[in-house]
C-alpha cells in the first residue's frame, strides 16, 4: 500500500528478519538499473505491479491514449519543472521537464556545478559573458567570464573600475568585503567588485592573477598588462613595498618576463605596482622610470601625484582597470 501511494516508488525490498523498518521503497527497478539488484540474505525484492486500462476495459496504449495516474497532482517537480504522468509498468510513474540548469526526476539536482570559468567552458559555453558559478555550499553567484581573449586561459572578473571612480577602491584591499554591482546581469565596468567570499572561492579554483586596462572598450592589449601565478601572489594578504614575481609585466610598453616588480597592498591602500621606485629604490627587476615623472602608481591606488596619462588605465576619466582570477586551459 505504501509503495502504491508513493509515486516515486516502482519497487520494494522486504527484509524478512526484522520487525521494524523492514520495507524499503525504491525509485528504480531491476529493468531501469539492473546493476543495483544484489543478493542480500533475508531480503526479498518485488516490482510494483501496475496495469492501466481505458474506459470500456481496453488495455492502455501509450501511442494512442493519454496517461492519467494522478502522480502529477501533488506537483512533484522542483524549480518550476513541468510534470508528465507515465503509464508504463516497467519505468517511472512520472517525469519532469526541467529548466536548463537542473536535472533529476524531480529537477532536484543542479545539472552543472561550475566552480570557475573553465568549468563554464567545459559545459559548452563559447562566448564571454556573465555566468553562474557555484561555491562550496552549491550557492550560485554571477561572474563575468572571459573565455576568448587568451587561448591559454579562462578568466573571471573580480573587480573593474574607471579612473573617474578611483576613490571607491583606492583604499579597498582585496581582503576587505566590499561588493559593488555584484548581482547585475550586465557588468558596470566603471564600478564593479565581487564579495570577499566569492573572490576567495574563485581564487581557490584558479592559478593566476591578471590585470588589464580598458578591456571592455578596447579589448585585450598586452600594453599595460600584468599576470602572476597565485602561488607567488596571495592577493588576500597585506604587505608593504615588496618585490613580487610576475610571469609577464608591461607598463607603457616597458616589459619583462618572469621578473619582480614593487607591489603594495596594506591597510588603507589597495593593490598596485609602484613602477617608479621598483628598481631604483628597492632593487626589483622591473624598472619603469623611462617615460615617467617623479612617481607613478599602476593598476590601482591612483592619487594625483602618481598618475601618468601615458598609462592606459589612467589616460582618461573613463579609462578602466580590471582585475581577474583565472586558470590555464591545459590544467
From TrEMBL:
Q: Which PROSITE patterns match?
A: EGF_1
Which stretches make up the EGF-like domain? 96-107
Recorded superkingdom: Eukaryota
* InterPro entries per UniProt: EGF, Fibrinogen-like_C, Fibrinogen_a/b/g_C_1, Fibrinogen_a/b/g_C_dom
Matching Gene3D superfamilies: Gamma Fibrinogen, chain A, domain 1 (3.90.215.10), Laminin (2.10.25.10)
A Pfam family: Fibrinogen_C
Q: What is this protein called?
A: Hyaluronan-binding protein 2
Q: Tell me which species this is from.
A: Desmophyllum pertusum
User: What lineage does the source organism belong to?
Assistant: Eukaryota, Metazoa, Cnidaria, Anthozoa, Hexacorallia
